[in-house]
Each structure stands twice: as structure tokens, then as C-alpha cells.
């Protein structure tokens, strides 16, 4: 909605929401990555290597470990930031439930596009069917964190009710 007295207000609110989506997307990606790395290190996640690193290697070929690590982290953070911008831009009101649903869509994209690109099959079933479940949990962490953080961004209707004043 455009404020007739200040037409740039809707633009600035939109810019604030996009910046908030990017920043909060990065924070949510860090939380997601922590869960993913714990799963890989403990063996709870039955994946051969972290998916961002596998994507970088598959796309660019073998790289020295420090270069691979930097590129994988940068790509994952950028993807998470972009996904946060998309969610903040698509929905005027972001809730935890909506962000969780969005995270499930991102998980489906990973399972239908990125894992087959790696040769791991749909949802990683060429590695093991357990990949599907093991990759869903970190995506839900992403959605939970993103939803909690974006639910407090300006530019959406308030979810709080003002007390009745009796006037």
C-alpha cells in the first residue's frame, strides 16, 4: 500500500523486508548448517558429504579443500539469503507455520532437482532412502528459525491485538 503523503514509504518498507529476508535467511542457514554438520559428523545423516560441498565439486570439479569449503559455505549462505528474500517478498505476513511450509518446498526442490543433479537420485534414494528424512530435519530448522525471525519484520499487519480502551 502506498502512503499518498510519502510514496517512497512503501518502497522503503519493501526494501527493509527484502534486506530482513536476506539477513534472516543467512541466520536460518547457519542454524540449518549446524544441524546438517552435526548429522554428517555423527553419522546420523547418511550422506556421503555435505550437500553444498557436493554441489560445488560436481559443478566446478575437484578443488583444494580450503577453496571448496569457502565456496560451499558462500553458496549455501547465498542460497539461504535468496530464499529468505523470496519468502519475505511473497508473503506480507510471515508466520512460523508458513515458513515451515516454505522450508518443506525448499526441501522438495532439493530432493527433486539438486540431489538428482548430484547423481544421488530423487531425494537421495540412490544413496539410501534415509537421505530424504535426514535432509528434511535441517530444512525444517531453517523454516523454524526463518519464521521466528521474519514474524517480527516491519511491513506486515500486526498479529497483536490492542486492548480495548472503552472509548
Automatic annotation (TrEMBL):
Keywords: Membrane, Transmembrane, Transmembrane helix. InterPro entries: DUF6789. Pfam families: DUF6789 (PF20587). It comes from the Bacteria. The chain crosses the membrane at residues 26-47, 67-88, 100-120, 126-150. This is Uncharacterized protein. It comes from Haloactinomyces albus.
Amino acid at each position: 500500500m502506498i502512503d499518498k503523503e510519502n510514496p517512497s514509504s512503501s518502497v522503503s518498507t519493501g526494501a527493509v523486508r527484502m534486506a530482513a529476508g536476506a539477513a534472516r535467511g543467512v541466520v536460518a542457514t547457519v542454524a540449518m548448517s549446524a544441524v546438517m554438520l552435526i548429522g554428517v559428523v555423527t553419522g546420523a545423516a547418511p550422506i556421503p558429504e555435505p550437500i553444498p560441498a557436493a554441489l560445488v565439486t560436481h559443478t566446478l570439479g575437484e578443488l583444494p579443500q580450503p577453496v571448496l569449503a569457502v565456496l560451499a559455505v558462500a553458496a549455501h549462505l547465498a542460497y539461504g539469503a535468496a530464499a529468505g528474500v523470496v519468502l519475505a517478498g511473497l508473503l506480507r505476513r510471515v508466520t512460523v507455520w508458513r515458513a515451515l511450509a516454505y522450508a518443506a518446498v525448499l526441501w522438495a526442490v532439493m530432493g527433486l532437482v539438486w540431489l538428482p543433479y548430484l547423481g544421488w537420485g530423487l531425494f537421495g534414494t540412490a544413496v539410501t532412502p534415509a537421505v530424504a528424512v535426514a535432509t528434511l530435519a535441517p530444512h525444517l530448522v531453517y523454516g523454524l528459525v526463518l519464521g521466528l525471525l521474519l514474524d517480527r519484520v516491519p511491513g506486515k499487519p500486526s498479529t497483536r491485538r490492542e486492548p480495548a480502551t472503552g472509548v
